[in-house]
Design a protein that fits this description.
Layout (H helix, E strand, L loop, with lengths): L1 H30 L1 H6 L12 H7 L2 H12 L2 E6 L2 E6 L2 H9 L5 E2 L8 H4 L9 H14 L2 H20 L4 E5 H18 L1 H20 L3 H5 L6 H26 L7 H7 L10 H30 L3 H18 L5 H5 L2 H13 L6 E5 L3 E4 L5 E4 L4 E4 L1 H4 L23 H4 L18 H18 E5 L5 E3 L6 E3 L3 E6 L6
Parallel strand pairs: 2-8
Antiparallel strand pairs: 1-2, 3-5, 4-12, 5-8, 6-7, 9-12, 10-11
The protein binds protoporphyrin IX containing FE.
Protoporphyrin IX containing FE (HEM) binds next to helix 7, helix 14 and helix 20.
Length: 490
């Protein structure tokens, strides 16, 4: 009897243990495991294997337009062996912009820039060095330096437009691209390049540019002719800058440009920059600033010349400033051009040239959407946000597809009402654009000169967006009829 009782007890105990284990497992899984499973973002439904790639190749913005209304502000796309989680809107993208490099890094996702920028700079170095190199950018773009650059920008613009006839027709897109290469050469690459080597250096930059194709993002070292030309151009540029740098050092000459600023920069341990690093940083600056600025100048023009109301407002502002300062334009006068500033900012809201920003996630994090849904984004995901999509969210911007520069004016300030990261054409937070003031000054210097000296009329249809470009810009020509005419003073 005892034995069976014991056996019964044993069975009873084992049974109890089993039930307890099951309940515990159920509880644990309810509390922990499924929590991360349950709270994973919804996934874009696609065909198996290559479906995600096909959706992405159709155009990331097309995909966002289709999926955002269905899935909301946080969702994941399976792209081959990667998971890309999109965070759209200020409510869910704060972590994207604020996280430390150890949590969300740029290095892996922007690796494709390495063969273009060259070794030893930016995404080829670890974060501590990169931070120091970004400090060099910050120093090169300080207000005191910007004041000097503005004088050069104004000179370049005056010189360039003085070569236009009294009247005629031009492709505004081509003209502004060209002028911005000249200005960027002068302010960033320096006098030697601008005065003596402009044609050679711009041809080499052209090869670098053409070597950055959509395929280069996935296979930056693929042995294709465009990449070979890129690598040769990179080598030749390094040789040209090495010679300029050493002759500046030899002559103990100092200039007022970004090149000089990078030559004079020192790491925290006292080490000066090498010639190769200076070359790489200059290339990075040109890649960051040139297309982005010329595209924005062109959109600004297209909108101003298609909107009489805003054209009149910017012209009035120019007339008032001319009444106050004469025809002079310098850093401080450009800083008074608030109406023009808002017109540029609005063109850039509608058409941010960098349409997608990326990070690689190294630790799990959670986000809460504006309707209170919580999602956990696991480490290992690529995390993305999109200025082109987020800048047009209707709960932030009234009539988001309408060009309305006054949405940024005092009293409305739609970009501030919804909090930080509502306007992300320049990114924001930890990696926000370091060239934003430079870009505005450059675009204002160009447009104030055009508005003061010419009557302009857009004669081609309003331009379309060239979604296929790496830096998304204006498709086709933007034909403008001009007549030289001095703006009257108020
Ligand atoms: C309209 C013109 C411009 C636009 C729209 C623009 C846009 C941006 C954006 C969106 C980012 C953030 C990228 C990210 O978060 O992944 C960025 C970063 C950066 N930009 Fe610009 N940019 C412009 C002009 C310039 C110019 C003129 C320069 C320099 C001369 C410049 C230098 C930089 C640098 C160095 C960074 C990296 C900052 C960091 O990672 O800490 N940009 N820019």
């Amino acid at each position: 009897m005892v034995v069976p009782m014991d056996t019964d007890n044993k069975f009873f105990n084992v049974g109890l243990l089993l039930v307890a284990t099951l309940i515990a497992a159920k509880l644990i899984s309810a509390l922990i495991l499924p929590r991360s499973r349950k709270r994973l973002p919804p996934v874009v439904s696609t065909l198996p294997v290559v479906g995600g790639l096909l959706r992405f190749l159709k155009g990331p913005i097309v995909m966002l337009r289709e999926e955002y209304p269905k899935l909301g502000s946080v969702f994941t796309l399976n792209l081959l062996n990667k998971k890309i989680t999109f965070l759209i809107g200020p409510e869910v993208s704060a972590h994207f912009f604020k996280a430390s490099e150890s949590d969300l890094s740029q290095q892996e996702v922007y690796q494709f820039n390495v063969p273009t920028f060259g070794p030893g700079v930016v995404f080829d170095v670890d974060y501590t060095i990169r931070q120091e190199q970004f400090r060099f950018f910050t120093e090169a773009l300080r207000v005191t330096k910007l004041k000097g650059y503005v004088d050069q920008m104004v000179m370049e613009a005056e010189d360039y437009f003085s070569k236009w006839g009294d009247s005629g027709e031009v492709d505004l897109k081509y003209e502004l691209e060209h002028l911005i290469i000249l200005t960027a050469s002068r302010c960033l690459l320096g006098r030697e390049v601008r005065e003596k080597l402009f044609d050679d250096v711009s041809a080499l930059f052209h090869d670098l540019d053409n070597g950055m194709l959509p395929i280069s993002v996935i296979f930056p070292y693929l042995p294709i002719p465009a990449h070979r030309r890129r690598d040769q151009a990179r080598k030749k540029l390094a040789a040209i800058f090495a010679s300029i740098i050493s002759s500046r050092k030899l002559a103990a000459k100092s200039e007022d440009d970004m090149l000089q600023s990078f030559i004079d920069s020192k790491y925290k341990d006292g080490r000066p920059t090498t010639e190769a690093e200076v070359t790489g940083l200059l290339i990075a600056a040109l890649f960051a600033g040139q297309h982005t600025s010329s595209i924005t100048s062109t959109w600004t023009g297209a909108y101003l010349l298609s909107n009489k109301k805003y054209l009149t407002e910017v012209l009035d502002e120019q007339k008032n400033l001319m009444g106050k300062h004469g025809d002079k334009v310098d850093h401080d006068i450009l800083s008074e051009m608030d109406v023009l500033y808002r017109c540029i900012k609005e063109a850039l809201r509608l058409h941010p040239p960098l349409i997608m920003l990326l990070r690689s996630s190294h630790s799990d994090f959670s986000v809460t959407t504006r309707d209170g849904k919580e999602y956990d984004i696991p480490k290992g995901h690529i995390v993305a946000t999109s200025p082109a999509f987020a800048n047009r969210l209707p709960h932030i911007y009234k009539d988001p597809d309408t060009y309305d520069p006054n949405r940024f004016a005092a009293g409305r300030e739609e970009d501030k009402l919804a909090g930080a990261f509502s306007y992300i054409s320049f990114g924001g937070g930890r990696h926000g654009c370091l060239g934003e003031p430079f870009a505005y000054l450059q675009i204002k210097a160009i447009w104030s000169r055009l508005l003061r000296n010419f009557e302009l009329e857009l004669i081609s249809p309003f331009p379309e967006i060239d979604w296929n470009a790496m830096v998304v810009g204006v498709k086709g020509k933007v034909m403008v009829r001009y007549k030289r005419q001095q703006l009257p003073v108020n």
